[in-house]
Amino acid sequence: MELRDFLSLAQILISSVLIMLVLLQVKGTGFGAALGGQDQTFRTHRGLQRSLFRLTIVVTGVFLAFSAWSVAAA
Fold it and tell me: Which residue segment(s) compose the domain that 9 sits in?
């Protein structure tokens, strides 16, 4: 297995985790809310929400690092 193969596989796995984390954070909002159809109130993240939010930020950083590494290795 070459480095490019490893990086491609890692990017696929990390992006899948990132997608799942983002989908877990979206709660009770429909497509209309995404377009600004509903008035939303902003609340602070607590408990599991805060952990998911921080984990999403970390996984995004890891994804960006692997993407940069993949481009540099090509």
Answer: 1-20+46-74
The tokens describing 9, both together, are 């596989």
Q: Residue 47 has what pLDDT? A: 84
Residue carrying the six token digits 């983002």: 22
Contact by Cβ (8 Å): 18, 56: yes
Residue 28 maps to a domain: no
Q: Which helix (H) or strand (E) holds 44?
A: none
**pLDDT at residue 73 in the model:** 86
Gyration radius (Cα) of the chain, Å = 16
Residue 48 has pLDDT above 80, yes or no: yes
Distance CA 45, CA 5 (A): 38
